[in-house]
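Entries read chain and fold; for instance:
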Amino acid sequence: MTERKSDKSGSGATGGTSSREDRLKAALKANLARRKAQARARKDAVATSDSKPEQDKE
């Protein structure tokens, strides 16, 4: 069964490679965007939580 899968990928290596690369690039780009958004959200949450106690102290 694994031989069939490798045969399929080997036979379409020229046409399938660019398609696979395009899909991987798109997935990587989406993943990076998601991670950046998460990092921004965490940064905003930390900034908000840090600023609230200072406002209460004043």
